[in-house]
Amino acid sequence: MKHNSERPADPAGGADARHADPDAMFASHEAGYAKQLKPRHVQMIAMGGAIGTGLFLGAGGRLQHAGPALALVYLVCGVFAFLIMRALGELVMHRPTSGSFVSYAREFMGERASFVAGWMYYLNWATTGIVDITAVAIYMKYWAVFTDVPQWVFALGALGIVSVMNMIGVKVFGEMEFWFSIVKVGTLAVFLAVGAVFLASGHPVAGQMPGLHLVADHGGIFPHGILPAVLIVQGVVFAYASIELVGVAAGETADARKVLPKAINSVMWRIALFYVGSVVLLTMLLPWTAYSAHESPFVTFFSKLGVPYVGTVMNVVVLTAALSSLNSGLYSTGRVLRSLAMGGSAPRFVSRMNARGVPYGGILITVAINAIGVPLNYIVPAQAFEIVLNMASLGIITTWGFIVMCQILFRRAVDRGELKAVSFRMPGAPFTSWLTLAFLVGVLVLMAFDYPGGTWTIATIPVVVLALVVGWKLAKRGAAREQAADALASAATRAVADPARGA
User: Fold this and answer.
1) Domains present along the chain, CATH in parentheses
2) Crossing angle of helices 297-304 and 277-285, rounded to 10°
3) Which residues cross the membrane (predicted)?
4) Measured between alpha carbons, how far is 57 from 454 in angstroms, rounded to an integer?
5) How many C-beta atoms surround the C-beta of residue 326 within 10 A?
6) Residues contacting residue 193 through CB under 8 Å, at least 6 positions apart
7) pTM score
């Protein structure tokens, strides 16, 4: 049995989405989903979305560029990440939906905005998925036993396994994310505990006494000045990519209005503990100059202690992080594509669901796009990361921007008395809403100065805009053809049922 819902009367236009009966229309978009995600799943989805390879692998190189100031950069970016989550939380309290910001953009800004929000988010995850399967392949080749195995074999295997698991049902996705997050959080908890013991006891690490003096003796908080710390903001902020996943999960969460606020509020202290706390501890246990871009800073620390197999353990952790990201991408794009299709902004095929409430049409499309990463790993394995990674940044910045803009418009509708206020509100809005949008614009500006990768990424914006314009026109034509076909089919059915009337 397949669960297919009817689309709005005018999927190509924006006005109907705002002025038709929204409750009935949006309820039809949620038909077929199984609310099987439990509070523990959502808690770990929220936590896991805020912890990834950006911390486990990226922190070493960023410590080289900015020194201990990296902790402040993580804190600033973390505050804005939290504000984005609170903006999303306010929208979820208004109406939990698996379409998330795509559905909210449709409600408050019209179908054109929904089209842009959805496809830019898809750009993020489609490109990230290619990076993820490449990462899995690279991490697997860390072990000598796999040295002679072609990289593309692992890329294909990772994509196949995670795809099958996503097709089984949302509960399986939730369990996978739960355990993936347990591995990531557990690793950081062990580091924080061990590091705190060394710091409190004053036991030497690699022949040096730990403490604040390691920061003071090596140039202070800003050893290279303030500018390098500002410039790395555009890289650090993407360490928080996936925080918006809780919004997508809301549509399949039992009692979402009760569960989501707790999960979102817990993210702030976890960011402070895991990101800021970890970096502060790293700089107080060893001089920041001891870390490099070629090695995880956690591997550097534990190696100095002489802990055996630390490289193997950390490789398992980053492998888990890559699989978690791939898992999240397939899950979220399946739901977002279905929401787009329900508004006429994507092919009807991607709206299809199986008997277990899985939007398999959208997931299969994403798998097909991710599969591009398999030949990339065969043809140019060394460059597969760089070829696609920068494009994901445009998608995530656009997504976050739409979330905040929808929150602003929702609050305005509440002020006009058109919608009911919710108890879980974005703190400090509308000031913090506009401040967050300004921050996101600032990130784009900083990207433009990050030559060559960031500069070329910003330079592609006109191409992306042109693609969206063409895509929108094609979507309108496709929606019109489907409506005409539906009308003919309906007329034929009526004629068969009532021959006299048809004559």
Assistant:
1) 15-488 (1.20.1740.10)
2) 40
3) 44-63, 69-88, 119-140, 152-173, 185-206, 226-250, 271-293, 313-337, 358-381, 387-410, 431-449, 455-475
4) 20
5) 26
6) none
7) 0.88
Q: What was the pLDDT predicted at 427?
A: 94
- Give strand pairing partners of 253: 37
* C-alpha–C-alpha distance, residues 106 and 97, integer Å: 12
User: Is-contact 328 177, C-beta < 8 A?
Assistant: yes
**Phi then psi for 422, rounded to 5 degrees?**
-115, 160
Q: How far is CA 165 from CA 31, 363, 405, in A?
A: 22, 11, 34
Per-residue model confidence (pLDDT) at position 19: 44
pLDDT score for 4: 44
Report pLDDT for 26. Answer: 72
CB-based contacts of 194: which residues, under 8 Å, 6+ apart?
302, 305
Q: Which amino acid is at 28?
A: S
Q: Are 457 and 393 in contact (CB under 8 A)?
A: yes
Intervals of the chain under pLDDT 50: 1-19, 384
State phi, psi for 32 to the nearest 5 degrees.
100, -20
pLDDT digits (tens, 9 = 90+) for 132-171: 888 888 889 888 899 889 888 998 999 999 999 999 989 9
Element (H, E) at 408: helix 384-415
For residue 338, give the nearest of 260, 410, 252 by alpha carbon.
Answer: 252
Q: What are phi and psi of 282, to 5 degrees?
A: -60, -40
Indicate the DSSP class of residue 424. Answer: S
| Side-chain-side CA neighbours of residue 338 (13 Å) | 35
- Residue 234: CA count within 13 A, CB half-sphere: 23
